[in-house]
């Protein structure tokens, strides 16, 4: 260590303080010191059932002490009896339980000595009890008379307390005790007066000694009670205390013990005992009595319980009293004990010894186990103090102070060790310490020295003192570094020096990163029955990895690692998962991280949300005829405030068992005044509502019945309904059960014809309708309906105007005219019928029309009537969707709720020509390198006389770039093919063909094709759409003797894979001539025409029967309101297939459709009629098909000027 001092070059180190550390720590055994007793018993009982008894006396000291004993103040040799087994290097000995050992009973002391002095133990009492026995004796029977006083003495044998005494019979049944018969504290059985049933021969006294595990029985005693010739009534006489004790006695009790005062009296009638304190402080509480008031008991007696107590025994014959003067004494107790310690040479010594007790204890000083002789003792001595000055090594001694009075003795020991040694560092050199940032570090340097040593701490190679407030030197030499930082890591040295010598040790300190925790989510709020996952995220120093542990607590209690409650709560390392959360799961969950150096926690409070508990304790108050106050106690809100309360009721008169809402109240209310209806037998319940939901309903309140009353209101919604022209049915909504207000509800109906009758007609009915017959058709009536019950009538009713039964109109509209708007749309005008001819409420007008013939071929058509309805009183309407270039007839009629009136006279009108529809097909035939042949079909509907065709074509390529559009006009309307020349070879073209009338050209049909390269064979492509339900499909306009590849593909597939593909060759000209010859024969043509007409007739009949009238085609609707998107979809589904149909062409739309102008009408949608399912799209186009004339009914729109078509699917 000297080398360490020189190498570090430390001349002056930080001096913290000079501390007398030796007094605070135990003297190391390596240091010479006085003996000190470390273990001893106080009282020892030698139970007869034990094999041996150990009396301990252990002591420490340097040199090791030797031991000797005294018994009852005299030397006791452990070798004096072979039954004593002594221990080596110890004062403990074992007494073997052989033979009679009563001679060993006594009070022992143990003395431990070495060369410095002697110490003495407290007194050790060894008790050797004898086996308690009752003496064998013959007990003479006691003969007494009825009413005498008797005492049966027990006189139990002596033994180790506690002692329990029982009086029983020979069958071990307890002798009953009461005020008359009772047992004293000594165990005697007292009879205040005997009765004849007290006679028995088996009064047995049992004495139980639990510590000795012994129960002994006295010989049975006999008591004979004979009848007395007279009643021995007498005043009470005290048996305990006996009269010989006088009127008062003195009682002493140890402080802290139990005070028992006993009074037992005899007399007839049986005396009653009572207690009172005459002097001193009044009792803190009512005194506790036992044994039927015969014993006054005070536990934990104190000085305040001193005083005079009086017991009084009384009966009707008189009373007897006795006073107890109670004194509370106590054994000695220390006020100041002498304190030993380590002292250096030349210091002074003062030992104090003070004790209290009652009586006042005497104090005796002892030196090395013997009384101090003041004549030879060089110091000063008094009863309470010993003092010595200028201590020397030879003054080391054991000083003992003993305080005693009649209740006990106490002993205090002070070892005075006078030492002169160099510092002794008890902490090992080179200790390694570690802590985490922010925590305190404790570097130990436990030192023993006398004189006291100076202690200094240094760090690393520096000699600078550690002066900051973060460094603190504790009394035991430990250096505390507060709120450590990383830079506190290093090597420290502890230096200790006194006048005798000096010592030093080193210590190494490492500072680790502190562990950090966070629990997510923080304070979650979870609905009951939902799940929650808590995650504990941690950071810790890598050096602490092996000691790092995580655990979870709930409300401070550790959660088990294994899953609980059938897996509902699962802990998995840093996660805590709770499924089906319950209200019991609510609480603070703490994640605890522990390492070998620190422990940190992070909390998250789980709040469980649930619907409220139902309200409780419903009470009714403030009872009135029409109201009552309902009060309740709110249930638990379960962490979501109650925002509303729903009060429901149930009544058992009209709808028993059905709960209905009565009113609502704010969530913080606990009472509400309820408005009630008469003649109801209510009960109520309350439902609480929070953000989670509704609680269960509360338990119902008591029932509350309201008295009946006259009705408060009359029926509503009074109306007139009639199915016949000569009747009127008056109807109304009946009163609800809650509106009846009383028994015997009826309705008084009053009516009169408006403007004709002055007096009211009246009739009272129980149902909610009344039918009048033989009324004039559709005349106004004034009607009143009043509610009446057994207690009176409702308020005066309001008058309602109603009309008697309707009949169909009996007149037709006049001056019907038609204004042609375009080829498919006309506007109809008419004059309405007079109001008196409507004979009801006018619902509107119907326009019927039907086609009579086509202007193109002059053929007559079977009349298929169609209609449109126009709601309200109006005189015109628009009729759309007509066939162009056709003749029609049209009528108009009025209708009301009863039905249709007569039709007007038919008028005839013709629709003009229109543009034709798209040609049926377009095919490309005979492709060549610079020419191509096109073939097309007639339009589906010509809509007029065809004037020819417009043929257009343009070049296209794969990039969708197009060439200029070329037009070819075909003026011969019978021409259905055309050869185009002057085309470029190996070029793709798109071809368009559209039919024309004088009104213009229709929509084109298109096809694409590729011309041949130089020297290649012509290839043409024909594409036709095939219905998926077809089983065969004819292909026309093929060249004879030509090879074709037939391919069946699914349209709109990505890869256009073939379903079927085959190569066929058409027949040559020779075969074609055969068929041409047949087709030109007259009989063949006639047969084909007949078959066609018959087929057409059958189809027409089926069509009419199915639809009960005509239909507008979808095509006509599209022509009226063209929808490009719908048209493109239709073309895609039903049009001819082309590889480029889905490829829009830039700049081609105007050139293709430039000649096609959609017919636009300036008329409002109001002008169009209405059907059962009629409606418009937002652009005004129609949805659905039109209804035939045989379809009855229409959608009525009152108060609106918009009419819709009657459309049917």
UniProtKB/TrEMBL annotation:
It is a single-pass type I membrane protein. GO terms for molecular function: cell-cell adhesion mediator activity. Keywords: Cell adhesion, Cell membrane, Developmental protein, Differentiation, Disulfide bond, Extracellular matrix, Glycoprotein, Immunoglobulin domain, Membrane, Neurogenesis, Phosphoprotein, Repeat, Secreted, Signal, Transmembrane, Transmembrane helix. Residues 1195-1209 have a biased composition (Polar residues). Residues 694-716, 1189-1209 are annotated as: Disordered. Residues 614-709, 714-807, 812-914, 918-1015 form the Fibronectin type-III domain. It is found in: Cell membrane; Secreted, Extracellular space, Extracellular matrix. The keyword Nucleotide-binding does not apply. It comes from the Eukaryota. Residues 35-125, 129-222, 236-327, 332-417, 423-510, 515-607 form the Ig-like domain. The chain crosses the membrane at residues 1083-1104. Coiled coil: none annotated. GO terms for cellular component: axon; plasma membrane. Residues 1-24 form the signal peptide. GO terms for biological process: axon guidance; brain development. The keyword Acyltransferase does not apply. It holds the Pfam family Ig_3. InterPro entries: FN3_dom, FN3_sf, Ig-like_dom, Ig-like_dom_sf, Ig-like_fold, Ig_I-set, Ig_sub, Ig_sub2. May interact with L1CAM. May interact with ITGB1/ITGA1 heterodimer and ITGB1/ITGA2 heterodimer as well as with ANK3. Belongs to the immunoglobulin superfamily. L1/neurofascin/NgCAM family. This is Neural cell adhesion molecule L1-like protein. It comes from Columba livia (Rock dove). The lineage of its organism: Eukaryota, Metazoa, Chordata, Craniata, Vertebrata.
